[in-house]
Amino acid sequence: MEKKIKLIITDLDRTLLRTDKSISNYSLDIIRRCKEQGIYIAIATARSEQAAANYIKLINPDIVISNGGALAKCKDEVIYKCMLSARISDSLIKDCVMSSNIGEITVETESGYYSNSEELNKHGEDYTHAKYNNYSKSLNCMTYKITVEVFESKAAEELASKYPQCSFLTYVGENWCRFAHREATKINTINEIVKYLNISLEEVAAFGDDINDLGMIKHCGQGIAVSNAIKEILECASHITGSNDEDGVAAFISEKFLEKDEN
């Protein structure tokens, strides 16, 4: 018998968010009803807190997992933090700058988000906080993640083999790769969150669509894929719901986890 779900975790992009990056009023209403019924809500995103700020304000989650699992907070309290050292970060950035097969380099730190692209607005309004940096000088600080635009996959794979301390992730359908600490994963963060909330992993439901959601889809009590998810997620999910554009996350929550209104 499945345990009652006490924590719902959802990815943002291409999962809770529609393709146009909006959240429907229906989804927001379902999230509100979860809170009213005592179910914790968490978002788990590859975005930083700043890049997800507008959605955090709308959703008002109990917990925010950002930077792909490198940081988790319950309001202002840090539950989990896992960063690349300054030495590894500076060395990796230097190698990326020197590679002719790597274009834009973005770096997420505690003090800011940096990019070597002079077109800082091209990624949309969620990234207006970006600061230009050509990385001619070492940042000399720890980083949450380093994300690079790759022209040839071999270049990124060579970097990944040079830095075994890093987890290496290729975003499906995109020419972007992410480097982070090996322990900075969504499922590692979730393991700390369930301790913090004094619940079990079996009492957690997770929704996702992409490869960085694989761990939480596999190991949470219920791992639910939106129908637009990649093959690897669809194959390991315990359930499949409608697509992000069909508000699949909210529809599944409404049907499976919310107590019905008897009125």
Automatic annotation (TrEMBL):
<dbReference type="GO" id="GO:0016791">
    <property type="term" value="F:phosphatase activity"/>
</dbReference>
<dbReference type="InterPro" id="IPR036412">
    <property type="entry name" value="HAD-like_sf"/>
</dbReference>
<dbReference type="InterPro" id="IPR023214">
    <property type="entry name" value="HAD_sf"/>
</dbReference>
<dbReference type="GO" id="GO:0000287">
    <property type="term" value="F:magnesium ion binding"/>
</dbReference>
<dbReference type="GO" id="GO:0005829">
    <property type="term" value="C:cytosol"/>
</dbReference>
<protein>
    <recommendedName>
        <fullName>HAD family hydrolase</fullName>
    </recommendedName>
</protein>
<dbReference type="Pfam" id="PF08282">
    <property type="entry name" value="Hydrolase_3"/>
</dbReference>
<dbReference type="InterPro" id="IPR000150">
    <property type="entry name" value="Cof"/>
</dbReference>
<dbReference type="InterPro" id="IPR006379">
    <property type="entry name" value="HAD-SF_hydro_IIB"/>
</dbReference>
